[in-house]
Structure formats: C-alpha cells, structure tokens
Amino acid sequence: MTSSPDLELAAALAADAAEAAGALPDDPAAVRIERVGPRQYIGYNGRGAVVHIGSAEHDERFTPGELLKIALLGCTGLSTDVTLARRLGDDYDATLHGATVKNVAEERYTQAHERLEIDLSSLDPEAAARLLTAAARAVDKNCTVGRTVQAGAEVVLTFVDTATGAATVHVAQEVAR
Predict the structure, then answer these.
(1) Cβ–Cβ contacts within 10 Å for residue 46, how many?
(2) pLDDT tens across 4-63, in order?
(3) pTM for the full model?
(4) Rounded to whole angstroms, how far apart are CA atoms 103 and 126?
(5) Residue 55 C-beta-side C-alpha neighbours within 13 Å
C-alpha cells in the first residue's frame, strides 16, 4: 500500500487532534498523580509503586525538588550498579546523597550535586581509579535523567476540561523574572 500526500496530511491532522485532546505519547513508564488535598498529591506508576508529594510544610511527603534529586541519585545508582558490582561484589554497600543550589529569584536549580559513598579499600589505588572512571562513564552513557537535566527538555502541558473534553496545549517557556 502506498502513501499519498492526502493520507499523510490526514494522519498528521489526526495526530494533532489527538495531541490537542490531551493524548500522551506512548510511554510504558508513564506515571500519574492525583490531588488528595491542598498542595498534596499521590503519584502512581503502572507497577503499583506510590509516592506522596506535597509542599515542604507537609510531613511525610516529598517535594517535587526532592523527587528530582532522588531521580538523579536513583539514575546514578542504577547506572553504576553493574560496573561497581562487577569489581566490588554483588553485596557491595552504597549510599548516595544529593543537594542542589537554588536561584531563588529565578525559581530554579542552577546546580545539582551528588555524592556516591562506597568502600574501595579492597582495591589498589590504580584499580580504584579505573573503577571510578568506568562508573562515571556508565553514568554519562546510561543516566537518562541526568542527561535530560543537562541537555534540557521541552515540557508540554495539556490542560483537559473533564466536563467537556476541551484541551489546551501549553509548551513551557523560560519566564523572565
């Protein structure tokens, strides 16, 4: 079956209509959050995990900024896990800490700092240096969250009126402050 310009145009218009109606890209790792109170949400994934989200005045909830730090740390930990386990053993201990530097006037983070704590005492200094180089390369290559933060990503927000189905698409823009 051959494609005609009319069919291509119809497909493009259908894709635009789906986007305008609030359709999300096909993503097996899609998540959702639901509002459970003033400035409080619960996040879910398709595997049954739950995370409580809220502003800083709510105990036992992560702020979005904290979740960003956890996402970066988790990505670093998972990206280095095989490399570190290969040399240190499957039962190696690791703790990661994260902090950010915030530009309050611009309401954004300007730096994210991570610290990965591991015991390298079983390795000679040269082997430890080679392992840390390999672990850093693994993060640079495999950490999708870190790569996205570094490169930036377009954020597309669709507002959907659940009563009418009407949708409005907004592409986030840098705001001058």
Answers:
(1) 10
(2) 666 666 555 555 655 555 678 888 889 999 999 999 999 999 999 999 999 999 999 999
(3) 0.83
(4) 39
(5) 4
